């Protein structure tokens, strides 16, 4: 069918009766049609393939040669012919007239068919345009988690897509969705007057709940505003809606809100297609509001956790500072006492000073561990440089040797031949080895042995690595607890039972630092036999 009114309609007449054929062609031509002719099945097929037509006027004897398509078909029948309704339904638009009726009647029926086809095309185009417009509304709803914007996208989009006068939306109090309300009014119109069914909170909820349970909408009839006999306006200049519909918004068994849409007097009745599309949008609306509420709640929890984490960090930093200051004074006075600044020490006092000194050192390390933990998640980048692992280990072992000697422990260190260099933050790597070796000393009974060794491993398909192993003959760790040793403040049950001092931070800190160096820390232990801690770091191949 042509869209340009200045272009004549095109008809194809297929009739084996030459007299009737000529009459039909003449009548259609007189009515302004461009007419083509066919007299049998062969010429009909050729004509159908050659160019399109707006209507087909076909004798019933040639019906079986017609394709099933969207071109309107007018069949010419004899009164005694049995009308095959199923055959008519095979064509999108079809009608019939009797062969003996005047040619002018055939022209009239052909024009009616063309008009029906045009209206069908218009409706399909309008439905597709509406579907696309509401698809954009759904996409806009899904594009944000702001409940206010979601409601705004809904009322604006529906109002413009449906050519409405007013769109109004509200949610009901519900823990699953935020409380939100929005309204849209066509340009030049003041806010609409809500129908009686929606003015009361209880009645509004009851209506929406019933509609949601029945999976229906509620069309509201045309109304004349009170005090206005002409029906043109409401008191105060507000225009009252003439035809509107109430659409529930819900999820599962519970209703969450309601949409009210009012259209002008001139609008057609609400179609099922329109209602279906609006219901589809309301489904996306419910999902979007629930998601926004859930994500908003999660964000609030996250903000609270961040505040708590910052408060924890600030607290630890303050406590560390407050502890470090008196500890510095204590250790300074201990050093002065040892050097004789206060005079000779009475017999037995030297051992007391040693005990005080060792516990002061334990307190200093605990303070440093707590400070490290508080900064683990907020510390900046590593200060990388080439670090000689052998040299670093010797430094750490020499620092901890007095602690081992006080327990009559054998502390040894051995290295594979050659230089082993890694790219690392030297201060943090020193902290790793200090924590691991001091742990081994602490958990090994008097007279035991702690062995530190290092070497290079080059396994197939793996980057060459430096491996440091710290083996002790200590109390060991229960097999069921090995996986927890990297958890902050976790202490093995046998350590607590034996009253071995510690904070449960050493391995957690070491594990975090090693992972930040793209390395790996492993623990193997046999209860009552000993523990082996291995640190694997990528070898600096340029060394």
From TrEMBL:
Keywords carried by this UniProt record: Kinase, Phosphoprotein, Transferase, Two-component regulatory system
Main location: membrane
Record's catalysed reaction(s): ATP + protein L-histidine = ADP + protein N-phospho-L-histidine
Domain spans labelled Histidine kinase: 318-541
Location in or out of the cell: Cell membrane
Short name of one Pfam family: HATPase_c
Top enzyme category: transferase
Superkingdom of source: Bacteria
Classification via Gene3D superfamilies: 1.10.287.130, 3.30.450.40, Histidine kinase-like ATPase, C-terminal domain (3.30.565.10)
EC numbers, comma separated: 2.7.13.3
InterPro entries, sorted: CheY-like_superfamily, GAF-like_dom_sf, HATPase_C_sf, HATPase_dom, His_kinase_dom, HisK_dim/P_dom, HisK_dim/P_sf, Sig_transdc_His_kin-like_C
Name of this protein: histidine kinase
